User: Fold this.
Amino acid sequence: MTVKKLFWKDPYLKQCTATIMTVDGNRITLDQTIVFAFSGGQASDSGTIHGYAVLTAQKVAKEIIYEIDVSHDLQVGQQVNVVIDWDKRYRIMKLHFAAEIVLELMVQNFNNPKKIGANIMEEKARVDFEWCGNISEVLPLLQKKMEEIINSNSPILSCFSDEEREIRYWEIKGFGKVPCGGTHIKNTGEIGAVLLKRGKRLGANKERIEIYLR
Assistant:
């Protein structure tokens, strides 16, 4: 059985009930969950399962394995309450989508530069590109266009393109449609004010854009 990923159906859920499906030492699986596991550069959620802190969340194929404290007393078939750190989740959702906008603007305005990395944490997001020159030269244009999209309060559609294979996408009508399996906000206005910065140099022809919430 594949875990039902409620964070896709409703990424604003802060808690849910679930049934323990497997227990292997301090590694457990659930029948359904709201705790996102690191994927596509997006950090895992923090949270608790039956009051035990989630130490790690690992995506394995379509399953998610959670590590909790070794002193737990959970058993297969037990119903538990699952709670996420909502403040962390919401910041990550906003930073994640800000990074998605940056990436799409780069694709549309600068001849589709190759993305070579990305990471979305609670404190900031980053996107890395193959790029000749100093990427700070394009940041004013990116900042302007990004603010326009944020201020437009455009609805964000998040759906499956292939539910069986768990392939998802986001779409803003008139702007872009991009494959992505992360957790997404409902409209661009939720992001609020952002700041784009050039990150540390990664080597020859490699540049980084960092994204911060103001």
